[in-house]
Write a structure and sequence with these properties.
two-stranded antiparallel ribbon; 4 strands; 3 domains; elongated
Length: about 200
């Protein structure tokens, strides 16, 4: 639905959009879909005034009830644009969803130019959840996990840094030995190697 509050009354009743389509035709179509009147009298000026006043009042009422939680905010001149060419879904700031914002950002020719505000990208769901779980642990538990991975847990300034270091270490690929295909032992993993068998005097 178009936010007709952003277009002045005279333009709605007599003007056309950038494609040459009459605003009044779209306005009356949306009015009919919203209020489902018995009939529409487009030739009656007084009737058109009544339709306009009723629809604007309705939009003002709905606008106070709907909260935009998408994080997106369109620039004023793009408020009410179609989701895509030929679409009957019109995107406006009062009702824009994250999915609609993401779609416009990715697929519309103007992309970022459409928006006054674009939300920050969210962290990867798995990585974000894992980090949250780690930071719930006590510092000494985090340090122990870090030490087991060959890191020095105590050297990090806070729990967040220790947790991130653990995740980074766990994400590292396992390097396989080129001779037998078995994973090589971690330097601090405790497994015997040829060098471990040599006792220094």
């Amino acid at each position: 639905m178009t936010d007709w509050r952003n277009i002045d009354k005279a333009t709605i009743l007599t003007g056309t959009d950038e494609n040459g389509n009459r605003y009044l035709s779209q306005f009356l179509k949306e009015y009919e879909q919203t209020f489902q009147p018995d009939m529409i009298n487009a030739g009656c000026q007084r009737c058109l005034d009544d339709y306009y006043n009723k629809f604007i009042k309705y939009l003002n009422t709905m606008g106070t009830k709907v909260k935009n939680e998408s994080g997106y905010k369109l620039k004023a001149k793009y408020d009410g644009i179609p989701l895509e060419f030929g679409s009957q879904t019109f995107v406006r700031n009062s009702t824009i969803t994250k999915q609609q914002g993401d779609f416009l950002l990715k697929n519309h020719a103007r992309g970022e130019e459409l928006f006054e505000v674009i939300p920050e990208p969210t962290a990867d769901a798995d990585g974000g959840d894992a980090l949250k779980e780690l930071t719930k642990l006590e510092r000494k538990e985090l340090n122990a996990q870090a030490d087991a991975l060959g890191l020095d847990g105590a050297s990090y300034a806070n729990k967040g840094e220790v947790a991130q270091a653990i995740l980074d270490k766990q994400a590292e690929p396992v390097i396989e030995d080129t001779d037998n295909g078995e994973p090589t032992a971690d330097a601090d993993g405790g497994e015997d190697t040829d060098q471990d068998d040599q006792v220094t005097e």
